[in-house]
Amino acid sequence: GWRRAMGRPALLLLALCAAGARGLYFHIGETEKRCFIEEIPDETMVIGNYRTQMWDKQKEVFLPSTPGLGMHVEVKDPEGKVVLSRQYGSEGRFTFTSHTPGDHQICLHSNSTRMALFAGGRLRVHLDIQVGEHANNYPEIAARDKLTELQLRARQLLDQVEQIQKEQDYQRYREERFRLTSESTNQRVLWWSIAQTVILILTGIWQMRHLKSFFEAKKLV
């Protein structure tokens, strides 16, 4: 599902399942950046296809962008390491393979500040992200490896099984992390409760001694 955007550079959070792909489009200005968070198992191929349209102020419509306009794509893994950083054209295709399971950040921004035509304008970016076996071009694979229709179908099924296994491994990884976090949180809550109890006991003892000293000073006891 969709999630909320955050700050600027705007951070759009997507939950694109590895079992499929979804297309979208978004608008950016000449200095803006859009980032997407994609949950990806390890050793999984991801392919992104995009094309851009430029806002025509006179016609008030989005037109195909000029060849001079480019998009910079940067991908970071869950540890913040740069997996991909490359400049592309006004439309293109980027590919990377995950090596660490978890949230990968995919960011796009234009080089529009170099173009006077785009100054102060808007850019519409159409983006389609494909994950897992959906990133494979099976007609191309069939032609390259000279596979029959039955062999190609078997290849697709094997890829789907492999992707399901990766998804299961990733879910086990997430479950383990959640369990460790829960245990750590429970332990901290326990120690905080013990600390509160000790503080209350010490405070009670101090109050009793203080009252005793007060009564003795007043010669009430």
UniProtKB/TrEMBL annotation:
Its main location: endoplasmic reticulum. The keyword ATP-binding does not apply. Keywords: Endoplasmic reticulum, Membrane, Signal, Transmembrane, Transmembrane helix. The keyword DNA damage does not apply. Pfam families: EMP24_GP25L (PF01105). Residues 1-23 form the signal peptide. It is found in: Endoplasmic reticulum membrane; Membrane. GO terms for cellular component: endoplasmic reticulum membrane. InterPro entries: Emp24-like, GOLD_dom. It is a single-pass type I membrane protein. Residues 33-131 form the GOLD domain. The chain crosses the membrane at residues 189-208. Belongs to the EMP24/GP25L family. This is Transmembrane emp24 protein transport domain containing 4.
